[in-house]
Design a protein that fits this description.
48% of the residues lie in helices and 17% in strands. The chain has helices at 6-20, 53-69, 82-94, 107-119, 134-137, 147-160, 176-189, 204-217, 229-243, 256-264, 275-292, 314-322, and strands at residues 31-32, 42-47, 72-77, 99-102, 124-128, 142-144, 166-170, 192-196, 223-226, 248-252, 269-272, 302-303, 307-309. The protein has a seven-stranded mixed β-sheet with strand order 1-3-2-4-5-6-12, with helices on both faces. Helix 10 (256-264) links the parallel strand 10 (248-252) and strand 11. The longest helix has 18 residues, at 275-292.
């Protein structure tokens, strides 16, 4: 499947908008104040982010868009706590948010809060997670990648690399997007076994031990599909080394460490969903809605991935990742 052509149109629209707008005075705090004619526009982004390598890049994209457009941005992360995320949304509704972007890994937990936004006439988009449920929640589009398709492409890549059995460790409970990645890999690859990590990113050492134990207990596993770059470099690759045999490692998402691991030959690939663009475009879409009445997307999601980073292009991506934009 290819991303809708409208994604290209949005990128062009963003370019035109940016060329017409002066830069604002946004900073790296969770709330950035706009300047100029757009300073009275308040856009809010409430995610399940944890401040790690992935979400710091998505946040940077949102802040850069707010700065470029001169709007006020309120960005908050719930650290994978769906109740806290719902509370952020509810507080934003009463605190003057004019448009909202939310990630939706646990849509049921935030549905009530988003109903309050709808009742208040506040438009919103989902981003990063929620591509299958954004319409049900009331969003006019979704910005991100289809997680099932990303998993399918990973399955195809593992086939190409000669793997026979893939372990798919899941680092967050109740995150439907992570389950969809594993399901997609199983759809195209077939022999995929899920492993629910008990602590995930909160305790990388424990996650490494759990992956290592599984690899040692099942010698037929010859590949690991990590669903997060920090899990890949901090847990899966060391666990593979400790298992004492050749394990093909691939991951979803990028970090400076992940790109270096590809260059060093420790990771075969990383799926790039381009989270900087997710943060940036979500703000642009909401800005255009507020200033020009647009509800872009045509009722379909706007895909930012999946793309692949391999040894063929890792060096080109490395500097951008280290600069915090990939």
């Amino acid at each position: 499947m290819k991303a809708p052509k409208l994604g290209l149109a949005v990128a062009l629209a963003a370019t035109l908008v940016l060329s017409a707008c002066g830069s604002g005075d946004g900073d790296s705090d969770t709330e950035s104040s706009g300047s100029g004619d757009n300073a009275d526009i308040k856009i809010c982004m409430y995610t399940h982010g944890d401040g790690g390598g992935f979400w710091s890049v998505a946040k940077a994209g949102a802040e850069k868009a707010a700065e470029d457009l001169g709007v006020e941005l309120d960005y908050q992360e719930s650290n994978n706590d769906p109740e806290a995320q719902a509370q952020f949304i509810e507080a934003g509704v009463t605190a003057g948010c004019q448009a909202i972007a939310v990630s939706a890994p646990n849509p049921d937990a935030i549905a009530g809060a988003l109903e309050q936004a709808t009742a208040a006439g506040i438009p919103f988009v989902t981003m990063n997670s929620g591509s299958a449920v954004f319409k049900d929640l009331g969003a006019f589009t979704h910005v991100g990648q289809d997680e099932f398709i990303a998993g399918q492409e990973a399955g195809n890549k593992f086939k190409e690399l000669g793997a026979t059995k893939v372990l798919c460790p899941i680092q967050e409970a109740n995150n439907i997007g992570l389950q969809e990645r594993c399901d997609g890999a199983k759809d195209t690859f077939g022999n995929v076994e899920n492993l629910q990590l008990s602590s995930g990113l909160a305790d990388i050492g424990k996650s490494q031990a759990e992956i290592e134990a599984k690899l040692k207990a099942d010698s037929s596993i010859d590949a690991v599909f990590s669903l997060n770059a920090d899990i890949a470099t901090g847990a899966a690759v060391p666990a593979s080394d400790a298992a004492g045999r050749d394990i093909i490692n691939g991951t979803v998402d990028l970090s400076g460490d992940a790109v270096q691991a590809i260059i060093d030959g420790n990771l075969a690939f990383a799926i790039d969903q381009q989270q900087y663009a997710q943060g940036y475009l979500s703000v642009v879409l909401l800005y255009l809605n507020q200033t020009n009445g647009h509800e872009l997307g045509g009722g379909q999601p706007m895909y930012t991935g999946p793309g692949f980073v391999t040894s063929d292009n890792a060096e080109l991506v490395q500097q951008l990742a280290e600069d915090g934009t990939r």
